[in-house]
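Annotators were shown the component list below and the corresponding predicted structure, then asked to write short factual statements about the assembly.
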Amino acid sequence: MIEICNLSKQYDNQPLFKGLHLTITKGSVVTLIGPSGSGKSTLLRCMNGLESFQEGHISVNGQMLYGIHEQNYNKAQVHLTLKNIRRKVGMVFQQFNLFPHMTVLHNITEAPTHVLDISQAEAESNAISLLQKVHLEEKAHSYPGQLSGGQQQRVAIARALAMKPEAMLFDEPTSSLDPEMIEEVLAVIKDLVSEGMTTVIATHEMGFARDVSTKVVFLEKGEIVEEGEPRELFSNPRNARMKAFLSRFIN
Amino acid sequence: MNYNFLTIRCMVFLQLCFSVICLSLTDAFAYQNTLEKVKSTGVLTWGFDAEGGAPYVFHDPKHPPKLIGFEVEITEAIARELGVKVQHFQNAWDSILLSLQRGDFDIALNGIEITPDREQSVLFTRPYYVYAEQIVVRDSDNRINSLEDLRGKKVGTLYNTAAKRMLEEMGEVTVNIYSGQIEPFKDLSLNRIDAVFVDLPIASYYTTPNPQLRLVGKPVGEGYYGIAVRKEDTALAEELNKIIEKLLRTGELQKIYSRWGLWNTAQEKLFLHEELLQKHTENHPSVSEKVSPSVTKFLPTLLKGALVTVGISILSMMLAVGLGLILAIMRLYGNTWLQRISTAYIEIYRGTPLLIQLYILYYGLPNIGITLSAFAAAILGLGMNYAAYESEIYRAGIQSIPKGQTEAALSLGMSKRLALKRIILPQAFRITIPPMTNDFIALFKDSSLVSVIAMVELTKSYSILASASMNFFKLGIITALLYFGMSYPLSLYARKLEKKLRLHDRNL
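Structure shown to annotators:
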């Protein structure tokens, strides 16, 4: 589904990724863990083109994104590639980023009606069933400013799902939530995963990562230090840095 | 210690102020009348408007600081007879009689026609010149040969003049009113108007050197220029009458007029001033007789002006909003060249006066073959100027929307353009409502500047009415109320709109 090949990226002339490889197969659930600044978010953002990179390529659903220094990089082409990728890959942000000037329902129908040209009526009935799925159907006509953080994040998930994506990227979806709201969001993601959605999550929720992932990737300073089966990785980390990282969570 | 020092200083200062006030009061009351003051100070203060132009009083094109014109020479001759020196007092022509009444100068001598309305507020000497109104047309135009032919035509004239009143009394003439003398002749050359109808001295001065224009028909509507003094200054007026008579008898006045090409047989009438004034008063119906001072009579004209003001403001604001948005988007999202163009536009339009921009649009562009109507030039001028300000407001508004909003929109498959249109601009709009309202109200008031390009809007209507009726105070209050009555509802509406939009994102 998503294949990252030899990815290199510099930030302000500081190298972040140096030839990173990662494969995400269809139906798999991959969690990216690691300390802040390790590149989890950046890696996610590279996958749908919110960040560009210098070398290597990322293949998403058959669409090829090349680094800007690659021979195959074609500026005119990038536009179309990104459009195709973003229609098939949904993204949920740490700060929710709901559109504050639109109702919850309108937030969800906006992209389907304007990008996919779905009729308003159809988009609305889809939106209602998505809101039911995230248990917020009664908030359809509220504005984002009237919702709690957890509710906003669930709307954001429904909004991304309205585009009927084949994969979902979650960028620390619970990091800016109050503790009591984390569970309601994680529950929605768990539902989604159980339906077989290909999912990539950057997270600090270790318990969640262990329970739902098919693969855990431990990143540090832009490098994949360790990747593998969650149970094995969490119970028996081979790498000393990973051990140190996990021990902080256990404590 | 310190405190005492301060107190002393304050007291000294107050005493100083007091003595200055006393001194200036003594100055005003020291003389029985203006004539005595002029004689004992040896200075005659003369009020005029050099902007009014040639051949009356104007700056010598060869030595710009020097004032020349036939009225400069007359005033100097009068001062010489009085045995005093002339002190110049430049004053806008529209308010020259008001300033005279205020006491800013001793005499007003500047092509001021003797009319019954004016005689109600000031005292005139015997006439020093017999003027008449003259039609000027393009040399190539044979349609107009007499005053009657002006019906159905567009005719330029100067405001608050006998010519303007004659045209208005004729009816069926589209009258374009100018405050400067050169502008009507420019517009005539540019085919914007069909004829110019002004005082003969002006007509001959500007037509003689211009082969494109010619005078047609005989001068009509004779009238008299007189020197205006304050009503109580009868002694000064008598003295001036004696001097004018002397200058007439000695032929000095004729010499001055001949030098400026202004002498004609009509001037002989100056010798018989008593009968003249009598007849003249009958010829000119008083404005204040026709238009009763009752405010309701003025309202239709003011409301018509207000309508023009509203029309210009709305259309130019629409242009400013549209163009401003384009400029802001060019600057934020365009390539280097678009960014540079937008920045240059903003800096140039912000950094130069609107008045000059209007002059260039209306009187400058014809030099490169673009002739705009006054209405088009007004809207373009105001709109293009305000676009520079609006674009900076939009830029700030757009930049204040968090980056996450664009990212969320893009991640949903929206194009950059769609994200801007559907997500960013509607949010930026709410933020820009207060500064936009501010600018719209400012534009609304700045629209009075377009009167320089012959648009008669509210402020211009006011100054025309007020200077004709000398009713500056009452009409001023009414005009100000009209402006306020139009701008205040706009502020209220903007506040309401802002409140309504703010409800949506209470937490932000």
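Statements collected:
1. The mean pLDDT of chain A is 92.
2. The longest helix of chain A spans residues 179-194.
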